[in-house]
Specification:
The longest helix has 21 residues, at 8-28. The protein is α/β, with parallel strands linked by helices. 38% of the residues lie in helices and 17% in strands. Helix 6 crosses helix 7 (175-182). Bound molecules: the ligand Nc1nc2c(c(=O)[nH]1)N[C@@H](CN(C=O)c1ccc(C(=O)N[C@@H](CCC(=O)O)C(=O)O)cc1)CN2. Ligand LMY7XDAE is lined by residues 45, 48-49, 52, 95-98, 120, 144-145, 173, 250, 268-270, 273-274, 276-277. The site of the ligand Nc1nc2c(c(=O)[nH]1)N[C@@H](CN(C=O)c1ccc(C(=O)N[C@@H](CCC(=O)O)C(=O)O)cc1)CN2 has 20 residues, from helix 2, strand 4, helix 6 and helix 9.
Length: 293
């Protein structure tokens, strides 16, 4: 058996096509959505993700505003940039690209975001709304990677209700909010959130119908950990250097042999990453649409 590929590029492209129609409608009502990004430092991964976010905005008709600060930026500089983004009229939603360089307190910076402009759903008020299970008109933006994972599964009709999900990694942008999302009414999965102190991780993973690997350990998840037919989402990515060619290679958390056992597998790259970006655009559009309610 070879797993069905959960194609993030094609699915994100379908999401973006739908968003173009909604942005056109907003513009017809005089509302121009604008995404701001705040990047601190010169991490190549973060630079590439931010560049991708601006390209996506141009594709769907969202304006984008970029603030890049050098690695030497102080906490006062970051606070000042956040203040500018909170007050900017063009910026209807924004993100602080994570991780911030060592020495910056990420949680303290996230708390400074105006929750109404939080395009990542990572402000405590919005995470709190996710915990409270507030949906509908007052729902908060969902963190982009968890939302992208669920959307990818949905669009491939992978059953979620009542299924056992094992998430590897309890980070802020993926594991913790994903556990909350999967257990929401309507999705109704049973989630095990694992981490570096989990005892016998392979045995936990063997029970799962859906496995999400988000730790950044190359090829951690092995084929003999996977229940035949399970859906496997490879989220963590590491930039390794090929010892022969000397070129950088992006390597996911899931070993390629998993494709022979799983029912569905998201590649990495070209799986969850593009969905993360598409969900960000969706959050910006949704926030702008609130102005029409
Ligand atoms: N403020 C945030 N910071 C971070 C988040 C987040 O959701 N909000 N998530 C990750 C990084 N991330 C988004 O910012 C992200 C990761 C991957 C991709 C992506 O498209 N990846 C491509 C490969 C691109 C490459 O590395 O060359 C793929 O998977 O095909 C987009 C966004 C941490 N920080």
């Amino acid at each position: 058996m070879t797993a069905i590929t959960l194609d993030g590029v094609a699915t994100a492209s379908a999401v973006k096509t739908e968003l173009i129609a909604r942005v056109t409608e907003l513009r017809a009502h005089g509302i121009v959505p604008g995404l701001g990004t705040l990047l601190v430092g010169d991490d190549p991964g973060s630079r590439s993700y931010v560049a991708g976010k601006h390209r996506d905005c141009a594709e769907v008709g969202i304006e984008s505003i970029r603030i890049d600060l050098p690695a030497s930026a102080t906490t006062a500089d970051v606070r000042a940039a956040i203040k500018d983004l909170n007050s900017s009229r063009e910026v209807t939603g924004y993100i602080i690209q994570l991780p911030l360089p060592v020495g910056h307190n990420e949680n303290a910076m996230l708390e400074l975001i105006d929750p109404a402009k939080d395009a990542d759903g990572l402000h405590p008020t919005n995470l709190g709304r996710l915990v409270l299970g507030i949906e509908g008109k007052l729902s908060s933006p969902l963190p982009c990677t968890p939302a992208g994972i669920v959307e990818l599964l949905r669009r491939y009709d992978v059953p979620i209700v009542g299924r056992k999900v094992v998430v590897i990694g309890r980070g802020l942008t993926v594991g913790r909010p994903l556990g909350l999302l999967f257990t929401r009414k309507g999705l109704d999965a049973t989630v095990t959130l694992t981490h570096s102190r989990t005892v016998d991780l392979p045995e936990e993973v063997r029970r799962a119908d859906i496995v999400v690997a988000a730790v950044g350990v190359p090829h951690l998840v092995q084929a003999d950990w996977i229940k035949p037919g399970a859906a496997v989402l490879d989220v963590g990515i590491t930039r390794l250097v090929d010892p022969v060619t000397g070129k950088g290679v992006l390597t996911g958390d899931v070993h390629p042999d998993v494709a022979e056992v799983a029912g569905y597998l998201s590649p990495n790259p070209r799986g969850v990453g593009p969905m993360t970006r598409a969900m960000l655009l969706g959050n910006v559009v949704k926030a702008a649409e609130r102005a029409l309610l």
